[in-house]
Amino acid sequence: MKARTRKAGILLPITSLPSPYGIGTLGRVAFEFVDFLKEAGQSYWQILPTGPTGYGDSPYQSFSTFAGNPYFIDLEDLVQEELLEQKDCDEADLGSDPQYVDYEKQYKVRMPLLKKAYHSFIGRNGESERDYKTFVKENAYWLEDYALFMAIKDDHDGKSYSEWDEDIRLRKKEALAAYKEKCSENYGFYCFLQYYFAKEWALLKTYANQNGIKIIGDIPIYVATDSADTWANPQLFQFDKMGRPTGVAGCPPDVFSKTGQLWGNPLYDWDYHKKTQYTWWTKRIKKCFELYDVVRIDHFRGFESYYAIPYGDPTAEFGTWKKGPGMDLFDTLKKNLGKMEVIAEDLGFLTPEVYKMVKKSGFPGMKVLQFAFDPEGDSEYLPHNYPKNSVVYTGTHDNDTSIGAFKTLSKAEKAFAKEYFGVTGSKNINWVFVRQALASQSDTAIILMQDYLGLGSEARINIPSTLGNNWKWRMLPGMMTRQLAGQIRNACFVYARCEKE
Predict the structure, then answer these.
(1) What are phi and psi of 85, to 5 degrees?
(2) Distance between CA atoms of 312 and 405, rounded to whole angstroms?
(3) What is the pLDDT of residues 103-159, one digit of tens each?
């Protein structure tokens, strides 16, 4: 019998896992989801970036490219290790709606609980203290700057570091020494959070791998303006002498946005990175592969050329395209780190040069089924056009669910989609999308969990360029049924993406 090399996986953010405390975590339910994936014949669990988030709650705007999100630390684990009491958790108001995350309550209520756990941890002798000290030492290359950055941010009531006094904003020696002493307790607290996140993450990843599940991580190409990375390493970015950006990232105007997308992230000084043989990038990607088995790199086209918008512009209309490092970066990373399993997010405006770079890299690109239904032409996103070396998605975190997306198609697009699918109505349209993705030639198919659950727009993760209602959706308890796992396995088996049992 021919070996089944085609694979399938599910895209579900950690935040979207059900839990009794307002947000998905790395605790018991994460392990149960791994069991569900195994029973469903899956090979991959794709997640969103795992960094600590701030204003807007976007995982693509993190306070550090190296740190983990403390919200993911499981409170039940802290109780089990006697760092918290059960009544601490029972009395905490972390949000009353089990279907959506209340990030304000996570910040105002969960963080004090975590600090209480930290105080319980301090002074404990034994193996955990030794492990903690080893972790801090081994991760000092990023942890020292991150913990101090967060401690100083707390001292400034959460203000962006661009609003700090000049002496500490520019990291003058005397100011750094003064704040290290002033903020020593919170510095230790943020080190503890990272230690505990890493401890829980390692247990979950080991369990996933032992059960045949690889974790696909996701990293933004850029870092946040207000981050430990920019504060501690301004030389990596296009900053002036006062530490202000000279240009920021975004996308030019297109059919979706007349004024373009102004992301606002600082741009890299690629000449500096090349001169230093991409040392920071090597550290960054090495850390990623300690956490994940496969890394999806967001906005991959930005390595070939990037859109630079003058700092201070209110829109993205007047940016210019500039050359990125191209394959020089990835050749260096391969030399330093060996073979890497990478997914190139090659969506958006692509030039022949971008196609050439993606092909030369050998990394699989992405195909999104929801982009396919242009009645005027033979779209590259129609399943019969996919190359084998690609990853097909029904939709990504930036898309609506398949049910929601189908409802919003124009009359002509909807007619074309029905003709292509060979259906007359919209009944079970989520499974029609799923089966088309699984049937495609792509070696790997990643399906939104919401599409397997048959959910509509109420379960959408993110609407780009909007604030306030994103990154909130969660699965309800009881949705991961054995019956659903069996349905998923049967569909994947039919299209040679898993074994029967």
Answers:
(1) -100, 150
(2) 35
(3) 999 999 999 999 999 999 997 767 888 999 999 999 999 999 999 999 999 999 999
Tokens found for residue 74: 């499981």
Whose tokens are 């499974």? That residue is 431
The CA distance from 256 to 463, in Å, is: 12
Alpha carbon distance 281, 273 (integer Å): 8
Alpha carbon separation from 381 to 112, 326, 365 (Å, rounded): 47, 25, 12
Enter the tokens of residue 501.
């049992």
The torsion angle over the Cα atoms of residues 477, 481, 484 and 489, rounded to 10 degrees, is: 120
Neighbours of 7 (CB within 10 A): 20
- pTM value? 0.96
Could you list the active site residues?
298, 345, 398
Q: 65-105: per-residue pLDDT in tens?
A: 999 999 999 999 999 999 999 999 999 999 989 999 999 99
Contact 325, 303 (CB under 8 A): yes
**C-alpha span between 32 and 198 (Å, rounded):** 19
Q: Which residues of 222-239 are buried (b: 16+ CB within 10 A; e: fewer)?
A: bbbbbbbbbbbbbebbbb
Cα 281-221-227 angle, rounded to 5 deg: 80
Distance from C-alpha of 338 to C-alpha of 352, rounded to nearest angstrom: 27
Q: Considering only CA atoms, which of 448, 62, 81, 12 is closest in space to residue 287?
A: 62
